[in-house]
Amino acid sequence: MFVNRRDVQIQWGDCDPANIVYYPRYFAMFDDSTSILFEVAGFSKQDLVHKYGLVGIPMVDTRSKFYIPSTYGDWITIETRIESIKRSSFEVKHNVYKGEALAIEGFETRVLVGRDPVNPDKLKSAPFPAEMVAKFTEN
Length: 139
Prior knowledge:
By secondary structure, the protein is an alpha+beta fold. It has three helices and eight strands. It starts with a strand and ends with a helix. The mean pLDDT is 95. One of its GO terms (molecular function) is fatty acyl-CoA hydrolase activity. It holds the Pfam family 4HBT_2.
């Protein structure tokens, strides 16, 4: 599967009074990591809108398993991949490493969404384009 890795330094604003990352901040990092995954794979947000007629890739489910906390100044590596693709939905997995140790596993279910052709004021799920499937499932 296509994988993207990025290093992130934990900032002061990411932390709670106990100086550990406040868990919702990880979900923001995961959202950024999914967007970056698409960008690195060659599918910019402009491509999603103009080339594929999509309006977004909203999250419909998310969860995480936390193993090791991070604190202000720590560097973490977020490894992001699409685990499976269905017609319009897909599963994203984020493995967060602190050094060599697995610190967090994050999971998202997302859906490709475009305008409803019958009523453009409404949104409708859109099929995953074949070239995107090919890119995200390559070894």
